[in-house]
């Protein structure tokens, strides 16, 4: 079969030419043939919805399972009384507001609609698309058309006439090229035969817009979760593997900077990536399809299917995809990406764990941090960061000079002795210094956390709590140890007399203080460093596991 292309991208051409093309496409439909048609959402594959033989051809051309019903596409709400029964007033109200547009309503079916069209259901899906060319064709044909998305069953939907030809060339009579689809994801499907109305498929019309008119809407759980084995979804089409490219897809949710980092961490040289525009350069050298800017869901919806489809022409072995949040059009984009991934989803926010580690001298903080490094964690040593910043951060320097006078030497380095003399015997002065230090260290730590690889971090600070760093932590850990052991350790480590060791320890906050302020305690009663490190490894492994578990739980609710 030769597939004829009707070029109707430019409707400002001579009216006669346009009319001829519309008439030709309408004739194919009236005579029982198949035509690919543009809509604002995705391209449809149309046949006369009242002609069972014509509708059967759609199932064959798409390779679509025959229990998956079609949407009946009409040119206006006046057709509802003809093909549906018991139409509730809210249906007309929704049609008045949103038709023509990306909303499909499930209503009770009038038996004049054939079984093949509705897959034998006693309901029928009604839609009026917002595309002038297709509306003109339907009006001209004088029939409602059964029109599922024009893709081969299981493949991502088509958003250009070229996509349709790719899947349907030679299998159908015609394709009408009406330009690229402006919405890019299919219509929102709302079932009005149940109370409260139920969202069966998120789409081009945001759920929030529907709720503003309808009130409470129940979201079918097939929208956000994979079906259990043997479970029948309310929209039969939701049970099939959908929108999927050939390479397996993994969706990475979470704050965009984190999901990007998580993908960088996981990808191999043959991975393909679907990402937000801001992060494109992170994936240089890989096959990348950009969805759009993080905040621009309109563009993301337009591009999502194209991104998924295009990977089929490449040799990538797996695809990682960033994903917007669920608000507005985000719900539909989320749903399409997750269905393409068979709901294989990783939450980048889940996988990062930030621990705060604090405790007095000689308790074993260093060994505890070493254990975290052995687990692949990154340690932020606040004292070291402060001294690093002193060298480069003029604002920090000036803040110190503002309070303590110029205590920097000629070459710009801090005179620690001078500063020490001012603060160590004066608690208020010490508090003042700490206030300045942490005012500058806090944003620096945050910057490093956000720019990091998104996995495991430990913030090491003696003033973790007073410095306000605990706010970044999933859990704060006090490292404590019996006094006599600490004294011995400090003596050996710093090569000092017992008396000085005791003095040094008692100048700091007590174990009881740390115990009280922190979420949990790691006690070091071990005789050797090796023994304690082993204990710390076990302790942190369990703790991290528990935190991840809790986060996953929180994410599900
Ligand atoms: O935007 C759209 O809706 C596009 C364009 C071409 O109009 N069409 C489209 O059709 O997405 P299709 O067939 O790919 O998806 C229709 C979905 C399927 O999941 C189908 O199972 C469901 O609607 N559906 C159709 N009739 C139904 C009914 N009576 N009850 C519940 N679900 C129904
Ligand atoms: Mg479809």
Summarize the structure in words.
- Strand 2 (35-37) and strand 3 (44-48) form a beta hairpin.
- The chain is built from 21 helices and 22 strands.
- Helix 14 (382-392) packs across helix 17 (427-451) and helix 15 runs antiparallel to helix 17 (427-451).
- The relative contact order is 0.09.
- It has 557 residues and is of the alpha/beta class.
- The protein is elongated, with a radius of gyration of 32 Å.
- The site of threonylcarbamoyladenylate (TXA) has 29 residues, from strand 6 and strand 7.
Short description:
The chain has about 550 residues and is of the alpha/beta class. It contains 21 helices and 22 strands.
State the main characteristics.
557 residues; DHBP synthase; Rossmann fold; 3 domains; 21 helices; elongated; binds threonylcarbamoyladenylate
List the helices and strands and how they pair.
Blueprint: E1 4-7, H1 15-30, E2 35-37, E3 44-48, H2 52-62, E4 71-73, H3 80-83, E5 84-85, H4 89-98, E6 103-109, H5 115-118, E7 123-127, H6 132-141, E8 145-146, H7 161-168, E9 174-177, E10 188-191, E11 198-201, H8 207-214, E12 218-219, E13 249-253, H9 256-266, E14 271-276, E15 287-292, H10 297-310, E16 318-322, H11 330-340, E17 345-347, H12 348-351, E18 353-358, H13 365-374, E19 378-381, H14 382-392, H15 394-404, H16 416-423, H17 427-451, E20 456-460, E21 475-480, H18 483-494, H19 498-506, H20 511-517, E22 520-523, H21 529-556
Parallel strand pairs: 1-9, 2-9, 4-7, 6-10, 11-12, 13-16, 13-17, 14-15, 14-16, 18-20, 18-21, 19-20, 21-22
Antiparallel strand pairs: 2-3, 3-8, 4-8, 5-6, 6-7, 10-11
Helix pairs in contact: 1-6, 10-11, 13-21, 14-17, 15-17, 18-19
């Amino acid at each position: 079969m030769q597939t004829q292309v009707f070029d109707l991208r430019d409707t400002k051409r001579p009216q006669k030419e346009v009319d001829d093309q519309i008439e030709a496409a309408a004739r194919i439909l009236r005579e029982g043939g198949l035509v690919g048609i543009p809509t604002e959402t995705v391209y449809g594959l149309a046949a006369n919805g009242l002609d069972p033989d014509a509708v059967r051809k759609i199932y064959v051309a798409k390779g679509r399972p025959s229990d998956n019903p079609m949407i009946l596409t009409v040119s206006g709400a006046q057709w509802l009384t003809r093909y549906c029964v018991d139409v509730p007033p809210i249906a007309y109200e929704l049609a008045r507001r949103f038709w023509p547009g990306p909303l499909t309503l499930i209503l009770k079916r009038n038996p004049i609609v054939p079984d093949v069209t509705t897959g034998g259901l006693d309901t029928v899906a009604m839609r009026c698309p917002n595309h002038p060319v297709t509306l003109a064709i339907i009006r001209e044909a004088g029939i409602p058309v059964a029109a599922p998305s024009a893709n081969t069953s299981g493949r991502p939907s088509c958003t250009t006439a070229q996509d349709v030809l790719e899947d349907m060339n030679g299998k159908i009579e015609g394709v009408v090229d009406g330009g690229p689809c402006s919405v890019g994801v299919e219509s929102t499907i709302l079932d009005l035969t149940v109370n409260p109305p139920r969202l069966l498929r998120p789409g081009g019309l945001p759920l929030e817009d529907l709720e503003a008119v309808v009130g409470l809407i129940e979201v079918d759980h097939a929208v956000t979760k994979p079906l259990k084995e043997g479970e029948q979804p309310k929209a039969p089409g939701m049970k099939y593997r959908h929108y999927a490219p050939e390479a397996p897809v993994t969706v990475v949710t979470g704050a965009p900077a984190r999901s990007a980092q998580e993908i960088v961490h996981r990808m191999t040289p043959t991975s393909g990536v679907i990402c937000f525009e801001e992060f494109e350069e992170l994936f240089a050298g890989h096959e990348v399809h950009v969805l759009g800017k993080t905040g621009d869901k309109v563009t993301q919806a337009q591009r999502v299917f194209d991104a998924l489809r295009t990977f089929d022409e490449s040799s990538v072995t797996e695809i990682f995809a960033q994903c917007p949040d669920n608000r507005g059009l985000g719900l539909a984009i989320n749903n399409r990406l997750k269905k393409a991934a068979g709901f294989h989803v990783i939450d980048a926010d889940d996988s990062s764990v930030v621990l705060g580690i604090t405790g007095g001298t000689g308790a074993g903080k260093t060994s505890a941090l070493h254990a975290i490094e052995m687990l692949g964690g990154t340690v932020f040593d606040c004292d070291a960061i402060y001294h690093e910043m002193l060298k480069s951060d003029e604002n920090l320097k000036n803040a110190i000079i503002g309070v303590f006078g110029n205590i920097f030497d000629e070459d710009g380095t801090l005179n620690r002795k001078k500063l020490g003399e001012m603060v160590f015997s004066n608690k208020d002065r010490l508090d003042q210094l700490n206030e300045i230090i942490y005012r500058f260290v806090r944003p620096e730590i945050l910057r490093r956390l956000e720019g990091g690889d998104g996995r495991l971090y430990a913030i090491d600070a003696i003033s973790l709590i007073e410095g306000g760093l605990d706010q970044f932590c999933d859990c704060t850990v006090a490292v404590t140890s019996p006094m006599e052991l600490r004294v011995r350790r400090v003596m050996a480590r710093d090569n000092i007399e017992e008396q000085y060791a005791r003095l040094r320890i008692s100048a700091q906050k007590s174990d009881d203080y740390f115990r009280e302020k922190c979420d949990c305690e790691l006690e070091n009663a071990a005789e050797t460093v090796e023994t304690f490190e082993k204990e710390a490894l076990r302790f942190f492994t369990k703790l991290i596991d528990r935190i991840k578990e809790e986060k996953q739980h929180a994410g599900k609710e």
